[in-house]
Amino acid sequence: MTDPTGPAPALTLAQGDITREHADALVNAANSSLLGGGGVDGAIHRRGGPAVLAACRDLRASRYGRGLPTGQAVATTAGDLDARWVIHTVGPVYGAPGADPSLLASCYRESLRVADELGARTVAFPAISTGAYGWPLDEAARIAVATVRATPTRVDEVRFVLFDDRAHAAFAAQLD
Ligand code: ADP
């Protein structure tokens, strides 16, 4: 068991493509199939290369035959990315039945739990659920920042990597 205590992590912001970031773990806004998709997922698989997809296929075959449930997280190798691990998490689809904010919060909490298990000290998150899954940016940013602040972890730095100006502004407003 890890002991997730210690000083709260530094929360930092970056703008751009998360697959260009260096961190111990990069979080993927995956879909439950774990087999790739658009947005962050597509970029992670493109730049991570075949090792990431092979690891995801293994997880499908071994533990997640029905897919990774929404709100959960699981790690694989980072393949060719400048990281040790990718932590795949499945955000809720905005407006879908049962897709309440607690499920989006769970993505951040579970990803940090997996990061602690791995011993990751720097973790980069995209704005989960704010692309294809349609979550309003301001609310998603509020949930992301509040959840990370409330989650005990041994991670030293949590970096939010925002693709565009709007997302960056939404997260910056929460960190002020
Ligand atoms: P979801 O299906 O969880 O909504 P998406 O990947 O469609 O995930 O989008 C999540 C957020 O990530 C959106 O704000 C989108 O603009 C942003 N995004 C898309 N590609 C990248 C990337 N390569 N790096 C960082 N953020 C990205």
TrEMBL record:
InterPro entries: Macro_dom (IPR002589), Macro_dom-like (IPR043472). Gene3D superfamilies: Leucine Aminopeptidase, subunit E, domain 1. Pfam families: Macro. SUPFAM superfamilies: Macro domain-like. Residues 1-176 form the Macro domain. It comes from the Bacteria. NCBIfam families: PRK00431.1-6 (NF001664). This is Macro domain-containing protein. It comes from Streptomyces griseoviridis.
